[in-house]
Design brief:
3 helices, mainly beta, five-stranded antiparallel beta sheet, Immunoglobulin-like, globular, 5% helix, 4 domains
């Protein structure tokens, strides 16, 4: 008997788990119930041995996080995880794990489902409601477990209502020929100055052979130029022969806007084109402020359908009054500037609204103290809102688009572009949504309200920011509770866990040390009780 137990134990843990051994296999992200949906995720073990998920394994959507407590997925088996439960509609089956208190909120439009083991992403799915299963009772099922994780061609709605939890997917079809998968697209440095060449990199994989990878880019809206990408270790990519491809865009003058996208082809005559990404060449300014871009009405709908009804709202997410006298607001054109008048102050938790026509905004929304008149209009296809203090320090920055992955409803359909969480990265498309109605200038956003952002909490902050190798994360707890403080890279991989403990009420801090990490944006996430806060920090070496 002793020998049998040892043999079973070895079958479960005798090998290291690699990316692809466990995959996100089925997702119920938008069920048919009204109100809060019953949401769940299924994992599939693709190996011939059982896999033990201990506390080094984490399921996350980039916001909420669930750490496993020692559960085994059998060889070629399945594990169902409830992530949200509707109080008024019974959950349709008994899930293997209840993670409904972990803060994982699967968005109905698009979201991430990530399985990490320590700092390694075992699987990472970025789904979109265009893939199907959007509130019609179906689940989103993976077609080929060995196929790419984040392309539409490997996913589809289940044939039956409610999907196939704990069983083979209804649309299971292994051995398909899929287009290339392009993930982890980024440019380095994140905020280049005029002397910086910029490396554009991406993780590119395929079930066959990549025959071409091209980076197309344009400067200040000019015509496209192109660069062949390589994975030879000499183009800002990783080691020669890995799956990281790179291309180097030459240094550009300060103030330049660079837009880029990738086109990849494989030997199966498939091609994949990415969204358009962008960066601005700065003068070396830093981003370190509590007055943040919170709402943007850039393309009002009829009957407000003219530029006089454009507005930008800022929110003071800090704990003290901000004197914004003579601060400067720009779009993506350095010549388009608006200087806030002397005496402009924003109290903690309050809003500042600027507009082309202050009278029109005040009359339509029945509000006061709108500041105007802004002398330029925002571009409907995509633009920037940049906020500088009087010394020229960049205090906040958002570059938005009128196309996916940004919400598309604000582009002339009535709603404004509304920030979901003022404590998280506001330059992240997934942190924005369409407002309810035609916007909420001067008052709390629907997204913040829906997430019930805690008013009694001092916001998570990182100082200095940007930083070199080390910084300090500070936060305040309104009451004693269990706390996790973690650092993720921009693609959602867990880099380090700074705190995992029960802490008392009051002020706390932790040292962030990223001596071996690369230059780039990192996400600092604080889980306390049932709440989550997040902020971004820029590591510059």
């Amino acid at each position: 008997m002793r020998f049998v137990l040892i043999a079973v134990f070895c079958a479960v843990v005798a090998f290291a788990v690699s990316p692809g051994d466990i995959v996100v296999n089925e997702i119920m992200f938008n069920g048919p119930e009204s109100g809060t949906d019953n949401e769940w995720v299924e994992l599939h073990n693709t190996t011939a041995s059982g896999v033990l998920l201990d506390s080094t394994f984490e399921l996350t959507d980039g916001e909420g996080s669930y750490l496993f407590e020692g559960v085994t997925i059998p060889a070629n088996g399945y594990l169902t995880i409830m992530v949200a439960e509707n109080d008024s509609v019974p959950f349709p089956f008994v899930a293997d794990i209840d993670a409904s208190e972990a803060g994982i909120l699967l968005a109905n439009s698009a979201d991430d489902v990530i399985l990490n083991e320590g700092t390694t992403a075992i699987d990472n799915v970025t789904y979109d409601d265009d893939w199907g299963a959007d509130g019609d009772g179906k689940t989103l099922e993976r077609i080929d477990p060995a196929g790419p994780s984040s392309i539409e061609e490997n996913w589809g709605p289940s044939l039956a209502d409610g999907g196939t939890p704990g069983a083979v997917n209804s649309i299971y079809d292994p051995g398909g020929d899929f287009p290339p998968e392009i993930t982890d697209i980024m440019h380095t440095p994140e905020f280049p100055i005029s002397t910086d060449d910029v490396a554009v990199t991406a993780d590119i994989t395929d079930d066959g052979t990549i025959t071409k990878a091209v980076c197309f880019y344009s400067i200040d809206g000019g015509s496209d130029d192109s660069l062949d990408m390589a994975y030879d270790g000499a183009h800002g990519d990783g080691a020669a022969g890995d799956d990281i491809w790179g291309a180097i865009i030459d240094a550009q003058p300060a103030g330049s806007e660079v837009r880029y996208y990738l086109v990849v082809e494989d030997d199966g005559a498939h091609s994949e084109t990415t969204w358009v990404y962008a960066y601005f060449v700065t003068t070396g300014d830093t981003i370190d402020g509590d007055l943040v871009v919170n709402e943007i009405m850039y393309n009002p709908a009829s009957p407000m359908g003219d530029n006089n009804f454009e507005y930008i709202e800022f929110y003071n997410r800090g704990s003290t009054l901000i004197d914004a006298s003579d601060w400067i607001v720009k779009d993506d054109n350095d010549f388009n500037t608006f200087v806030l008048p002397a005496g402009t102050e924003v109290a903690a938790g309050e809003f500042l609204v600027i507009a082309k026509n202050a009278d029109s905004i005040e009359a339509h929304y029945s509000i006061t103290d709108v500041v105007g008149s802004v002398g330029y209009s925002l571009n409907n296809t995509g633009d920037a809102v940049r906020l500088y203090d009087p010394d020229g320090t960049l205090m906040d920055y958002v570059y938005f688009l009128g196309v996916s992955p940004w919400p598309t409803e604000p582009d002339g359909n009535g709603p404004s572009l509304s920030l979901i969480s003022a404590t998280s990265d506001n330059n992240d498309a997934t942190n924005w949504e369409a407002s309810s109605g035609d916007g909420t200038p001067g008052s709390i956003n629907t997204g913040i309200f829906d997430r019930e952002m805690p008013e009694s909490i001092a916001l998570l902050s990182v100082r200095p920011n940007p930083f070199n190798s080390s910084a300090t994360a500070s936060f305040m707890l309104p009451e004693a509770c269990e706390v996790e403080l973690m650092v993720y890279d921009i693609s959602g991989r867990l880099i380090t866990r700074l705190i995992e403990d029960n802490l008392s009420a009051g002020q706390h801090s932790a040292l962030i040390e990223l001596n071996d990490a690369a230059t780039g944006i990192y996400l600092i996430k604080l889980h306390f009780g049932e709440e989550t806060l997040g902020t971004k920090a820029l590591l510059v070496k």
